[in-house]
Amino acid sequence: MVMEDFKITKSKIKSIKSSTLKDFPLYTTYLINKISETAQATRENVVGQLSEEFPIFIKKCKENQCDVSLDEWKSYHKQKYPNAIKDAKAKIKAMLENFKSAINKIDDDLIERWVEDLVYDKTFIGMNIEQLIREYLFSKGYEIRKATPQEESQNIDVFIDGEPYQIKPEGYNRTVIKSRIQVPVLIYSKDNNDNIIVKVKR
Asked: What is this structure's pTM?
């Protein structure tokens, strides 16, 4: 058969990876993954930088004419990081106890409070960017006061340490604003990672 161009899709890669997890009970890999993330159990300082170590392993296999196999990879990694598995396991096991304690505290009331926090509080703050900016500045130690309706009519949105500011999205046309009081502007935008970027224009 003549080899032709081909593509391994993301779904196929996921399927291949999932096939190695067939011996794990349902939901356990998801939970262990979350526990490991919280405990930082498989960070570089524990198990090494695997994305860098694996190419080195491949190179050494080719140099030594050994098989590129799972057993060889295990042997290579265990020689270089002899305590990695034990240390990662200990971190996960310790964090698992914290998770067990937390799970026992989850009841109907806590679930309802969590859902309300998501639907109301977090949505309000997350989508009301002006409020989010005020909350952030307050957390940084600034004295914050929301403008009164009369001050808002003068295109003032917030007072920061007693100084008036407008808060506007990137791309606003300042010449359209008939401002009776010229004040600095906090211009906000979002980057590709949904971080909010705020620039001060005076």
From this structure: 0.62
